[in-house]
Amino acid sequence: MNDLMEIIKGRKSVRTYNGEPLSETHRNLLEEYARGITDPFDIPVEFVFMDAKELGLSSPVLSGETLYVAGKVEKKPYADVAFGYAFEKLVLYAWSLGIGTVWIGGTMKREDFEKAAGLKDGEMMPCVSPLGYPAAKRSLKETMMRKGVGADNRISPDRLFFNEKWDRPLTSADEMKDILEMVRRAPSAVNKQPWRIIYKDGAYHFYEKKDKGYVNDNTGDLQKIDVGIALCHFTMGLEDLGKKYEIQISDPGIEIPSDAEYIASVIVL
Ligand SMILES: Cc1cc2nc3c(=O)[nH]c(=O)nc-3n(C[C@H](O)[C@H](O)[C@H](O)COP(=O)(O)O)c2cc1C
User: Fold this and answer.
1) Which is nearest to 127 in space by CA: 11, 231, 225?
2) What is the C-alpha to C-alpha distance for residues 109 and 111, in angstroms, rounded to an integer?
3) Is ligand 1 within 6 A of the CB of residue 104?
4) Whose CA is nearest to atom 7 of ligand 1?
5) CB distance 149 to ligand 1 below 6 Å
6) Quick check: CB of 189 below 6 Å from ligand 1?
7) What is the CATH number of domain 4-140?
8) What gap in Å lies between CA 38 and CA 19, rounded to an integer?
9) What's the pLDDT score for residue 172?
């Protein structure tokens, strides 16, 4: 992808579309890319492209959308993290082509989308996104919504990225600083940014800092999806710099607050 940092900084949720269908080329590129997406936990995410009009799909926060993509995944531990990782790959690729998206986990009639996506027992469809070309101007409801969740704000790095101990800020002057900035810019449910990273002995340990009300049977834990998104930005950043890495699930046992949970570690080789 051209200039990853530019893509990550430029991406914003798009809730107001211009009503035009995706070009055939764009649709084919997205479908082909989606088929090739893998995740570090080897939990496959299946992408289903759904015509909005044909299937009667809509969302109260959107206007002008013509196409949706849904992601389905088997319900099992780490399915939500894997989902976040895989779906965000598609979101960033779409934006690199000038195609807008917005993660939708709540503001939709879920039964309609699950039926249209052919959801089976044992699977979940945590989120969907429209895919289309942004309108020239945001709708008023979109502008209000962005204000409501402070969509343009992000938590400062010293409260997200720690050195050896929780809450001890990490000061990285090298290229890792840019990669952490890519993580910081990531989208999250209600813009809560629940990811935290502790750097220790060459490994970046990822944690979820939990808020109440983000877990249910239909979506899994939305904030684990957010951590999956953060992991996606981090590893794409490493790959962009040509750095090799390994992902392990191996809790280093660092002391953390009671509302935090260890998720995974990235060892930069
Ligand atoms: C897992 C997840 C679920 C989300 N669900 C919704 C939703 O149901 N409706 C909505 O309008 N936005 C939803 N969002 C979009 C966030 O509100 C948005 O990403 C955040 O406010 C930051 O804004 P930005 O994406 O423009 O940077 C969701 C985002 C994520 C990552």
Assistant:
1) 225
2) 6
3) yes
4) 104
5) yes
6) yes
7) 3.40.109.10
8) 31
9) 78
Residue 133 CB: number of other CB atoms within 10 A? 18
Structure tokens at 86: 């895989």
All residues at 6 or more sequence positions from 57 whose CB lies less than 8 Å from its CB, including other chains = 50, 68, 108, 112, 113, 116
Look up the CATH superfamily of 157-268.
putative nitroreductase (tm1586), domain 2 (3.40.109.30)
C-alpha dihedral, 222 to 104 to 102 to 40, nearest 10°: 40
- What residue segments make up the domains of the chain, in order of their start? 4-140, 157-268
**Which one, of 111, 105, 108, 53, lies nearest residue 84 by Cα?**
105
CA of 103 from ligand 1 middle (Å) equals 5
Mean pLDDT of all residues in 229-238 = 98
How far apart are the CA of 205 and the centre of ligand 1, in A?
24
Residue labelled with tokens 């997205």:
30
> What CA–CA distance (Å, rounded) separates 12 from 134?
10
Q: What number is the average pLDDT over the span 171-186?
A: 92
Rounded to two decimals, the pTM is 0.98
pLDDT at 2: 56
